[in-house]
Fold this sequence. Notes:
This protein is an alpha/beta fold and 422 residues long.
Amino acid sequence: MAQFIDRRLNGKKKSTVNRQRFIRRHQEQIKRAVSDAVNQRSVTNIEDGESISIPKGDISEPVFHQGQGGVRERILPGNDQFIRGDKIERPQGGSGGGAGDGDASADGEGEDEFSFQISKDEYLDILFEELELPNLEKNQVQKITEWETHRAGYQTAGVPSNIDIVRSLQQSLARRTAMTAGKKRLLTQLEKELEEIKNSEPAQPLSVRKMKEEIETLRERIKNVPYIDSFDLRYKNYERTPIPSSQAVMFCLMDVSGSMDQATKDIAKRFYVLLYLFLTRTYENVEVVFIRHHTQAKEVDEHDFFYSQETGGTMVSSALRLMKEVIAERFPVNEWNIYAAQASDGDNWADDSPKCKELLTASILPYCQYYSYIEITKRHHQTLWTEYEKLTQGFDNFAMKNIRSVEDIYPIFRELFQKQLA
């Protein structure tokens, strides 16, 4: 029987397959832990993985054990409570408690939850699973690089999981046929000659013995041809090829006025950190435009967007006018997929909110693939929210959500960018 020995040097990644299988098996628990980690992390802490804890009950394997039923006779040494014939009451709750249940037992013993560390890549893969930019269309200039994996024949080297058994056995059959066909024809000829010699007169014992030796040697050589060899192995080959795609720009509009206290700004920054990570990890070459505004709007770089201390009054329409100008100047609507994410506490001049609605209705939403607005407040909504609510009735590409606390950030982010069903 053939034996396959994998002698490749895997370094420290020998358990990669088992690790991925474990992550898939406990995906729901890991997703919950990652969701909790988003709320606890610092805004700038995006380079590390995460420590995941799974309750012991969720990873325990089913086992067979002796039940509580039946008739038993047992001798307990040192017994000072029962005599022969006494009946012992069954413990309440069936199998009883103790350290094996994961909780603290009566004698103070127990078992901890199972903890393990996931890498940064695994953390981000789980964080942004099943998310996408909505309504992404194929436009004229192709700049986002998306890849599609497809089968591309076979190769003679690869990982064991990609072995094609049928193709490998076909190669084995072809090799054995090529190596033994001539020998089998010679064997058939020798066996035929042997029968003729045996039936000939007079008897030729020396020739018969010599012929039998040749036949036995030939059979042994045919038998020694291995059933399968490393040369026979064929592995499925996969290639990544670029597929037709589109280019997109995301406008990030953040209110930094005086009404936005530090806690509100921190929630807004957390939301934008998630958005920025999602865009840069999922799409290549996607443009991101950062706009901060109070009474005046300014296009800034990534560092100033997250860390600048500038503040002032509130004029939301200034950010929308700047966005309109940037689109007209640098992003032709027939070539670009345009997206926007706006964060504010909803505080705005009362007469400015209708202007925001007019700007969105006339100059932005008709050319936008998707516009999301998040309002970070625990108070009653003001005029900006009221005016924006009117937009939801006329535009399917407009979405608005209310974030009240840090715990709402990740669930609402997933709602806004959930992958659409085909």
